[in-house]
Amino acid sequence: MDFYFLLFLAGLIGGLISGLLGVGGGIVYIVILPIAFQFIGIPYEEIAQFTIANSLFGTFFAGLFATYNHFKHGEFFPKQILIISFSSIIAGLLSLHFIVNTPFYSKEVFNIVVIFLLGAMLFSTLFNAKKQANFVETTNRTKRLMSFTGLSAGLTASLTGLGGGIIIIPFLNQGFKMGVKKAKAISLGVITITSLAMVIFNLFQTPMQSIEVTHTGYILFQVTIPLIIGTLLTARWGVRLSRKMKASAVSYLFSAFIILVIIKKLIELL
Question: Whole-angstrom Cα distance, residue 101 to residue 88?
Fold first, then answer.
């Protein structure tokens, strides 16, 4: 009972963060899921693969519900979402097939990649947080640069299970001079579509090790359902809260969560 309650609690926090920051709930899921998989006996050699697959499953629902709330308030940008999602899906699926779902991608490699990417995003976020108060949005964007954003986001999502928002929001905000709240809404839409594509892919994969617990591909519904229930209960509150917060405050809060995850992953490596 305590095990499932912790998963439910992680879902509550993940949903709130998804709606508030626009990065999906993966930043919470990748912390709690490895613990859950060790508890139920998933082979150590495939902890990374199961963590990424199930984090993306939870991230899909977090992104979907938060995107729906943005849609109801007219904060929906289908053109940008579709352009970025197309290249994101391609990069994500290729990465899953040739890199992630292979013996090479161990838990140690997974943690190193997560730390490196989060460290880069932390630097970018803190560097630009003070600029948000005087930020002026422009409309100078190209499909080519949006496609590059999608490629980077899809690769990040597949390698980390974070959903890609940690790439999309800084890219749109600083590279495209787009307001952070609009960037967040677009990020959630891309996360929803990209995560769904990768979840479907992982449902039809065969784990490299023999798994005794019930599973469908790399997805364990008995683990993700408590996460998803918690996520659906809080995602809309995160969206509401984000409308009341300054963009700079959102950036600093995002940075705080990044630091916590980096510390956790460094502890696992050591």
Answer: 18
